[in-house]
Amino acid sequence: MLIQPDKLRKLLILVFSALFLFLAIQIRFDMLFMHVIDNGASLVIQNLIPHGVQNWINFGGLFAHYWILVPAMVLVSSLLYFMNYKIAMWWFIITQVLSMLLALTISFILQIHWVSGPKLGPAIPNILLLWWLQLLATIAVIIMPNLVKNRRMRLGLTMVTIILWWLMLMACIQRNDMPFSSGLGSLFFGYFWWQLSEYQYRKRAKHWRHVLEIDTLI
């Protein structure tokens, strides 16, 4: 099967859902703790980053755009299709769409407030970073092992994807004045959703191949 078993998967689902729930409570009730984290992270990333690191943040910022992300998602979907993983292709597309709808709903619940009328705060989780996290996870965990057989090279490329995501997070804080909590929400919710979607794929992929009568690998 395309997605390998992981004994820690259920534990990771619980841990990251709990982390996101804790973060959500802090944000919904406007706790001082979150203001300290957001303001501290913004101060450091906006003003105290060394020049060498700043160049890397600028590099990460090149990817922090929907007009780059969406074609990349189409490319990954097409690659899964041409590798004859048609169920996996639809799983990837559906999980991305559902994550967006959930993120919008959660953001509305957490950030709606009334100041001379209803207003919404910044999206938590940030959808751009949420989608990038799932895309990079798909590349690192699912596609890369099928294309790169050298274990050290796979580990190195996985580290590159992790660093790239954090560079995009810092670029969003610098350029878009995004709160750090929004990026943190993308990390917690995104990894929870990724592990949950992997679990659902392993559990239901064979069933859907049978129901849809598709000649495909799973």
UniProtKB/TrEMBL annotation:
Stretches that traverse the bilayer: 12-29, 64-83, 90-115, 127-148, 155-173, 179-196
Keyword Metal-binding: no
Keywords: Membrane, Transmembrane, Transmembrane helix
Keyword Transmembrane: yes
UniProt feature coiled coil, ranges: none
Signal sequence range: none
Protein's name according to its UniProt entry: Phospholipid phosphatase
Lineage start: Bacteria, Bacillati, Bacillota, Bacilli, Lactobacillales
